[in-house]
Amino acid sequence: MPSFLPNMWNQRRRRRKRTTRGPYKEGGSMWATDTWQHGLSGLNAMGRKVVAGLEVQTMNGGIQEGDQSVSLDLLKHKMAHFAKERNWDQFHSPRNLLLALVGEVGELSEIFQWKGEVPKGLPDWKEEEKVHLGEELSDVLLYLVRLSDICGIDLGKAALRKAELNAIKYPASKKNNPNANNGISITESG
């Protein structure tokens, strides 16, 4: 692991608000403060958020919902290309990616930290809060996809296999089904 990563981790933890800075040495682009993680998100020349080479939905534009079908394979290939173009494969070891993933999960957790229970659909959230949540969820997803690629794991197949194993381990039954009638037989009488 490059020796600068622990120091940069501490610097990042102190910078709560995301800000842009000057051109990044290797890419010549404007990158957010999370550039030390080598590679998955930043800002393009027009100031729009870019994650793994994809311009993401922002308040002012970007990819609109329904414009593109997104699969794990598409994300995997985009991210591999993105890292290769910047010569960042050298930093994308399983350990480094896992630590970056954990950091992003921490940022995701911060969003919910003081909100208490939140209803489905986030009806009381402002649009900018939902956009921020989407960005942090995307960071987690992208690091997970990149980690699985670097480890040689087909994440889609592994997830389907795990879902099948969970179905066997936790079979659906009337006992576990909240819509069931709690074992009481209801019959029509005449």
Automatic annotation (TrEMBL):
InterPro entries: DCTPP, MazG-like_dom. Gene3D superfamilies: MazG-like. It holds the Pfam family MazG. Residues 1-26 are annotated as: Disordered. Residues 11-20 have a biased composition (Basic residues). Residues 93-159 form the NTP pyrophosphohydrolase MazG-like domain. This is NTP pyrophosphohydrolase MazG-like domain-containing protein. The lineage of its organism: Eukaryota, Viridiplantae, Streptophyta, Embryophyta, Tracheophyta.
